[in-house]
Input
Amino acid sequence: MFRSHHAQPPELPAVRTAPTRPLIVFERVFKTYGNGNPALEDVSFQVRPKDFVFVVGASGAGKSTMVRLLIREEVASRGHVLVDGQDLRRLRRRQLPRLRRKMGIVFQDYKLLPTLTVEQNVAFAIQVTNPGRRHLKEKVAEALYIVGLEDKLLSQPGQLSGGEQQRVAIARALVHRPRIFLADEPTGNLDPDTSWGIVQLLLQINHRGTTVVVATHNREIVDLCRQRVIAMEQGRIVRDEVEGQYMDGAAQAL
Ligand SMILES: Nc1ncnc2c1ncn2[C@@H]1O[C@H](COP(=O)(O)OP(=O)(O)OP(=O)(O)O)[C@@H](O)[C@H]1O
Ligand SMILES: [Mg+2]
Output
């Protein structure tokens, strides 16, 4: 009960939106391969859930190394890589499958199994990560529908174009509904029109709520998309822009 007629209305609680925790964190990461090659030097950046990021840079700049650290194929020599709050250095071997289930990955060469059909290639990914196989058929069909290949279920990779093979690889990476989608030079073997189609698909996957990181040399695509760009040179980040281009804007103007 109010004691006074002049009582102020109760204060509304301050609206607090919890800051979203970054999904990927690189914190002063160095990576030197066994032969002494420094591949990453003092690399720091964060990626928030639902971000779309291009990682660009010349051959040898360290893009694939960054991807390998994220899937924990390699471990940082110094510094920390965190995925979903988890420091990958501390990850135990038995925790690896759980990390990998959070991720879908595609490469320049599609890495499909040539003797299996499209449907089997996509299903194979679930059978490996989640042998329970619940709703297997539906999940495979959904992933192939997203990439527009629902009518190629029974084809074999050799009967498909490069662009179609990359779509199968994307479906395979999507089938366990990863939170993070990594693509290492996904358009490296494709002509410009087909490449554009693949990138449209990656943007669409991002719009469905998946965080997407794409390592690429493809200048045309990066410039058309106007997404965040992390530019690497000799293992270091030289630029990190919200709506970036392949080349530094200032350098381009010269
Ligand atoms: N397994 C490895 N052993 C030794 N050195 C390596 C290894 N992998 C990469 N490197 C070196 O690390 C550096 C970064 O290589 P990385 O593959 O990350 O570059 P990249 O940006 O992906 O290049 P590209 O565009 O050609 O794919 C290069 O100097 C490379 O020679
Ligand atoms: Mg590479």
Observations:
- The mean pLDDT is 91.
- The helical segments are 63-70, 96-101, 118-129, 136-146, 162-174, 192-207, 219-225, 249-253.
